Amino acid sequence: MPLTKTRFLLPSTIQLLRFHFSFFLMPVYWFALSQVPDVNLSSAVLVFFILHGLVYPASNGYNSYMDRDTESIGGIKQPLQPSRQLLYVTALMDCIAIMISCFVSLYFALGILLYILVSKAYSYRGIRLKKYPVAGYLTVILFQGAFTFALVYYGCSMDKTTQVPVPAMLAASLLIGGFYPLTQIYQHSADLRDGVKTISYRLGYRGTFIYCGIIYTIAFLVLGFHFFYTLQNSAFYLFSLCMLPVVLYFLLWAQKVWQNDAQADYPHTMCMNIIASACTNTAFIIIFIINNLE
After folding, report:
1. How far apart are CA 152 and CA 194, in angstroms?
2. pLDDT at 122 > cutoff 80
3. Higher pLDDT among residues 72 and 126, named by residue
4. How far apart (Å, rounded) are the C-alpha atoms in residues 35 and 16?
5. How far apart are CA 167 and CA 63, in angstroms?
6. pTM of this prediction?
7. pLDDT at 5 over 60
8. How far is CA 131 from CA 17, 82, 126, 135, 202, in A?
9. Alpha-carbon distance values, 67 to 59, 71, 72 (Å)
10. DSSP assignment of 12-36
């Protein structure tokens, strides 16, 4: 009997899982991994796959299913409309992620479950944390920052230590917090039509850049404290060097937006995303390599 099209994933399902978007969330993983004193390599590979191959794409897909965006979203200029299949696929991916997480540890699996539940609460129409500018913002920076850092640090360590460095967790959340509003800056109108008032909308175009600049500066100082306190002076200098393209593009883009609000658009946002993610990932990967060669 010939196979029918319903047995395959629909193009909209594949697109809206946004596997490539995981690249933008990857710096926290590499940051945490670079700080683990004794890395369990097999666990590190498994944790990476669970987060970037299952949990993040499933979260992206569920958010798209709830939002049904008709305008550009992160990583997709022209999103397709989701089908019911997308909901089923995201649920299956979440279940697989939790089951595989048990091979890391039971506590890690519970952490993944909590992350999944919070991500659902962020998007689910019945709760929809994302429609609240402050609550939604804090949810994102806490769970994509400090919580994920702690999960990775714990899951990738040889002895499954719970002694996670607090300044590094704080720095992870601040790095997310100093960047996340910029990812919302081109969606003000679309979000408002959906009843969502983001932190970026509340801040305004110029206010978003000022706020992000302040939070990123604080993140930089906290990160510096962590690196110097843990005698990783060279890591701080390396990170600073890698961030120069990010700072330069940020300032150039801010100048354009100051002159014309229309410059706070999708192409500039995606370019900012790519530059920031590439530079941050590069910095933390190099720090990870250096720390594990010593």
Report:
1. 34
2. yes
3. 126
4. 33
5. 30
6. 0.93
7. no
8. 21, 21, 11, 8, 12
9. 12, 11, 12
10. HHHHHH-GGGHHHHHHHHHHHHHH-
Tokens of 196: 């969502």
What residues have CB less than 8 Å from 160, skipping those under 6 apart?
105, 107, 108, 154
The count of other CB atoms within 10 Å of the CB of residue 22 is 22
Q: Which amino acid is at 68?
A: R
Torsion of CA 121, 129, 188, 54, to 10 degrees: -30
Q: In sequence order, which residues have a C-beta less than 8 Å from that of residue 251 and are 6 or more positions away?
A: none
Percent of the chain exceeding pLDDT 70 equals 97
Residue 204 region by backbone torsions, left for phi larger than 0, else alpha for psi between -120 and 50, else beta: left
End-to-end alpha carbon distance in the chain = 60
Joined tokens for residue 210? 């000022």
State pLDDT tens for residues 156-198.
999 999 999 999 999 999 999 999 999 989 888 888 888 888 9
Q: Out of 1-15, 32-46, 212-226, 258-272, which region has the weakest mean confidence (pLDDT)? A: 1-15
Structure tokens at 226: 């962590």
